[in-house]
Amino acid sequence: MRPLPLTLLAASLLLATGIASAADPATTIPATAIKTAEQLRDKAMHDDTGYRIVESLTTEIGPRLAGSDADQRARDWAVAKFKALGYDKVYTEQVKFPLWVRRSEHGAIVAPFSQPLVLTALGYSPGTPKGGLTAEVVKFDSLDALKAADPASVKGKIVYIGFRMQRAKDGHDYGMGSAVRTAGPPIAAAKGAAGYLLRSVGTDADQRIAHTGVTGFRDPTKAIPAAALSNPDADQLERVLAYGKPVTLKLDLDCGVVGEYTGANVIGEITGRKHPDQVVAIGGHLDSWDPGTGAIDDGAGVAIAMAAGKLIHDLPQRPDRTIRVIAFANEEMGLWGGRAYADKHAGEVAKFQLGTESDFGAGPVWRMSASVKPEARGAITQIANVLEPIGVAYDAKKPGGGGSDLSQMHGKGMAALTLTQDGTNYFDWHHTPNDTLDKIDPKQLAQNVAVYASFSYMAAQADGDFGSAPGAFAGDGAAD
Ligand SMILES: [Zn+2]
Fold first, then answer.
1. How many CB atoms lie within 10 A of CB 52?
2. CA–centroid distance, residue 296 to ligand 1 (Å)
3. What is 31-88+271-461's CATH number?
């Protein structure tokens, strides 16, 4: 074999040393930690701590709309619950947001076939004028059709969009459904619409129950009354529209922004033994919409994270790193708690070992994905191997987004998982009066606690980190 030309040899040597010096050592999880994590997992599968927490929250507090009296009572509940569970450190961090209130809501078809409609006002909707808003309806089949509409066809009318969400395990239609609810109202307002109505973003069909949720109104002076019809009422409106005659609706909403409110994220910690300043961050959001009792959204998430921390607390000794459980304020009206948290803690992002939030109901976790540095992929596979026996499949191709509020820390550079729950039934009840405790299967909730307890513990015990650094995961498709 001929010797390599000198320049090529030098280049390949440079390349080799360059790679060797740039690469961090691989992050690994010690065998003893894996054994303990397996024990935690198996114990959690038969433990009812999580269920008892969500039962307590939904029974003793019930609905807890951000900024309501119940919001304060929920914070007091969370502080007391963390303490009762034995957390080492419990504290709150202020979160400010506009205070929106709902007082009453009515709607009706005035002409051609007069009859009442079941609807619910959407977050940040202003109220209608005294005596209600009566206007002709203009229907669009999609958000894109509204975007393309001539303002003259919309001006002074009530815009209606009839997007119908289909049932799916991963709930993927919620992306479009929530866009119709958040982006649609400001687009309609900018074109001069008098009001906005949508078909509820929900998969149920058999009940006259509307699904509430937030709009994307950011400027209250440019907002218009906005509401969601129940699915059967949306069907009815569409049948009436199909006659081809002008359809007049009346909306009578008493709601709106009445000032600013100061709430708080409530945080409990199991303090790390070796690296107390390095944290595994998990959580859920403490606020809920007002019609139900916030069991699946998101009492379940708060309970899963609190119970996972409690199970780690009960081990013979503290984990190497801190387990931080965050019960976020006002997720529902625009990630206020998550955004405030990320703004406050962006400078410490490198201290966040790994994080994710539970906010997709109480169905079992069936898939895990991660956004971590390449040298930590082996450790993620080790975590996946512990979760596999309880039904969690690892998708190495998808990024991890960190969940709802913690997506904001991921956006700042926190290494993150996504633990996808089975959402087949979630959107039957989401943001409705039917979001109540009976929708939670205690065994499925326990599986979630098993996933969160074992992954959190392994991340806390890892030799090495998962790559958190300022801006580390920009452009991964999940860091929004
Ligand atoms: Zn939620």
1. 14
2. 8
3. 3.40.630.10
